[in-house]
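Slide 14.
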Amino acid sequence: MNGTCGVVWVGQAALWCCLFFCFAELQAATAVKIAEGLDEPVGIASAPGDSTRLFIVERKGKIRVLDLNTHRLMEEPLLDLGNEIETGFGEQGLLGLAFPEDWQETKRYFVNYTRKEDGATVVARCLLRKELRAGSGALDELLLIVPQPYVNHNGGGIQFGPDGYLYIGMGDGGSAGDPRNNAQNPESHLGKMLRLDVNTQDAEPEQFLLGVRNPWRFDFDPETNDLFIADVGQDSYEEVHVIPGRRPRNNNLGWNKMEGTHCFPPGRSCDQDLYDRPVWEYSHREGCSITGGVVVRDKSVPELFGCYLCADYCSGRLWCFRSVGGGIAGLREISGELLGSRKAAENISSFGRDARGRVYVCRHLAGELFRIESGVYGPPER
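Slide 15: predicted structure.
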């Protein structure tokens, strides 16, 4: 190659690079439907190291298995707890699923559900009998049983943290305003973020955080290990807390003395310095119930990389923002960007990742599952 040709080639390469990144800024990520016909999906989980399957939790008791190569749902569920669980109220049922890092060796995974006989929250260990296939799961041991005084505010999310402990989101026990003061009572597991050492026999759960109302979904950022907790509000505000790799100053997120950044009930004074503030809240003028999401670390979706996604169940608003220095940056609504409209984004019940880090979202009543993909296209082949 002579000098002139080299200059021309470098110039063209720079131009294509510029065009690519400028184009990337203009494009929007999109949500592509990959499964439908699900029965009230409320959770999404993946098994570490298994890039071929995704697991969808159905509230009525089944864990469905999706083949990610064909986008087909297996006919038989991994697990069917329909005879074990209470589903009479909309917040009861099979609510959570988590796989530990060593699941391939131990064949263990864990579920969270409300028990049929009394509505108590149960966290149980399950075993794969021989191999990972539909219909191969079975309950093995009940690790935690928490009585529930009312039918709502059961929490339900479970996830393994970077420390190897199983984190459990427990609602305050229900009714309105936490009438039994469970969230602020250290003698009760209700209204807490718990963590449990599943490798220690007869281990008691630790109260990692106090003062939550109904932490329906939470997520650990796989890059920073920060814990994002979306707490469903009472009358006025929905909120998101970001817990850094270490615990916050007070280990108390404020409920039922505060709702969001406001004293509760309205008009009552409170010492706000006793509680850790959310990084973001929105009022019930914008929605009614927050569905916590995930931090996007899928490099194939550069438009949303590093963004935390969350949604409002009722209004169909879907937002993204980045956590920065105890606050947030770049907050924007992306309902239309991902799904075309707020209407199409209504009743989002959960977000999740597969083993490759790709992000998924499910719609509860519609029974649909979507994968978030990039709208960016590289330069044409030369």
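Speaker note: The chain has one domain: 24-373.
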